[in-house]
């Protein structure tokens, strides 16, 4: 059977869509549509293939580019046997096919931006052209990607530049992740300046049979210490009374009245003040404004006073220039005297620290106790060891000795307190109790 008109296809192997054959081409439209241009397309496709492989068409190249005259030949061509080459595999041949023609640059993005066309993104949302491709891999590869595979963690040694970078990173990050170290003040340890023994020899007046002079001296020392403690207690009591009086005044403060000011009561009649003044009203003094002449006169006097003050200050300054050397000598002398006094005071403190240790100094919350002198009255003294009474506390003496030599910090005795429950008062009603 003969094929129908619709089944006859044009024999075109160039890859273009097949068209139905039509024997007659009546009319301009049918002529343009159904004209057979297969041969022309094959020729153009061949020229494109030549351009992809060689970069240009063969007819545009010279003979020196197309042909090479070999006058010598290859004598060892038969000695080479064909060997296995991975490049001859099919997938390598396909991958090796690259066009010699440069790729065409697409101006689509620029033209769409100029035309202000709406770009649709995910879920049919309109995307801002300025934010297009945000977050995509449009940036150049990072330094880590470029240098990947070239660093050996076991063989490579750190360079000076890397050490400098790591030092800069430490300087920037360490203050953020670590707490700053507390700066400890540079204070000399007082233990090195103390020269008292662990067990101090007692006073001669503390003996069971002391000399009279030594015993009187020890009694005088104990009396002085007792008086000093009594004065301190009296001073603390005065401060306490003053604070209590201040609290009392604070409780009696009247709103709108300064502290300590007494306000008279308003129980007196209003006419009492007028009766004291004789009943005559006090005339009010009218306020008078200054004239322009008075203002000019006061301004002139003010200018004259300022000029006289400036002249006197300048005169004093000029007179002080003559005594500048004497003033400088006096200042230097006062500074040297003050420095000598400071050094003398420092030497006295060092000598006291060397002899008596930390006794009387404050360390932390508490003061180091000086220790109470162990003394007996004349009636309690015994002439023999048989009637000697034990005085003092050996443990307390050792404990104070450690504090005086700056071996331990001062402590105060903490006595246990008995827990006393608070009394809870409850109001009961007789008419609510039915028992």
UniProtKB/TrEMBL annotation:
Keywords: Nucleus, Ribosome biogenesis. InterPro entries: Nop53/GLTSCR2. GO terms for cellular component: nucleolus; nucleoplasm. It is found in: Nucleus, Nucleolus; Nucleus, Nucleoplasm. Residues 1-10, 45-54 have a biased composition (Basic and acidic residues). The keyword Hydrolase does not apply. Its main location: nucleus. GO terms for biological process: ribosomal large subunit assembly; rRNA processing. GO terms for molecular function: 5S rRNA binding. Residues 287-298 have a biased composition (Basic residues). It comes from the Eukaryota. Residues 1-34, 41-60, 259-302 are annotated as: Disordered. Residues 11-22 have a biased composition (Polar residues). May play a role in ribosome biogenesis. Belongs to the NOP53 family. This is Ribosome biogenesis protein NOP53. It comes from Phellinidium pouzarii. The lineage of its organism: Eukaryota, Fungi, Dikarya, Basidiomycota, Agaricomycotina.
């Amino acid at each position: 059977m003969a094929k129908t008109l619709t089944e006859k296809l044009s024999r075109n192997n160039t890859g273009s869509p097949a068209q139905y054959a039509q024997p007659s081409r009546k009319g301009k439209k049918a002529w343009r549509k159904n004209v057979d241009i297969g041969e022309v397309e094959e020729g153009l496709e061949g020229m494109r293939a030549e351009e992809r492989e060689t970069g240009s068409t063969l007819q545009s190249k010279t003979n020196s580019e197309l042909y090479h005259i070999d006058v010598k030949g290859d004598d060892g061509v038969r000695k080479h046997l064909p060997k296995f080459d991975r490049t001859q595999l099919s997938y390598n041949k396909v991958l090796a096919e690259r066009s010699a023609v440069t790729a065409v640059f697409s101006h689509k993005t620029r033209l769409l931006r100029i035309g202000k066309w709406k770009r649709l993104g995910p879920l049919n949302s309109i995307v801002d052209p300025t934010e297009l491709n945000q977050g995509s891999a449009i940036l150049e590869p990072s330094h880590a990607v470029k240098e990947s595979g070239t660093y050996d963690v076991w063989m490579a040694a750190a360079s000076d530049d890397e050490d400098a970078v790591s030092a800069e990173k430490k300087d920037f990050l360490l203050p953020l992740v670590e707490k700053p170290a507390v700066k400890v003040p540079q204070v000399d340890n007082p233990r090195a300046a103390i020269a008292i023994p662990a067990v101090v020899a007692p006073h001669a007046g503390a003996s069971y049979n002391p000399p009279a002079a030594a015993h009187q001296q020890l009694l005088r020392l104990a009396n002085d210490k007792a008086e000093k403690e009594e004065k301190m207690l009296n001073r603390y009591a005065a401060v306490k009374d003053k604070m209590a009086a201040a609290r009392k005044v604070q409780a009696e403060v009247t709103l709108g009245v300064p502290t300590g000011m007494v306000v008279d009561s308003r129980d007196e009649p209003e006419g009492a003040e007028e009766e004291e003044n004789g009943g005559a009203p006090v005339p009010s003094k009218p306020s008078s404004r200054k004239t322009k002449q008075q203002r000019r006169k006061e301004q002139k006097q003010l200018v004259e006073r300022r000029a006289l003050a400036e002249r006197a200050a300048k005169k004093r300054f000029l007179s002080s220039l003559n005594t500048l050397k004497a003033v400088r000598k006096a200042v230097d002398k006062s500074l040297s005297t003050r420095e000598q006094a400071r050094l003398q005071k420092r030497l006295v403190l060092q000598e006291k620290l060397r002899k008596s240790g930390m006794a009387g100094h404050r360390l932390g919350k508490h003061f180091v106790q000086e220790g109470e002198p162990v003394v007996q009255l004349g009636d309690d003294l015994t002439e023999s060891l048989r009637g000697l009474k034990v005085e003092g506390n050996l443990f307390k003496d050792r404990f104070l000795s450690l504090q005086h030599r700056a071996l331990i910090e001062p402590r105060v005795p903490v006595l246990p307190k008995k827990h006393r429950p608070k009394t809870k008062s409850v109001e009961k009603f007789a008419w609510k109790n039915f028992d």
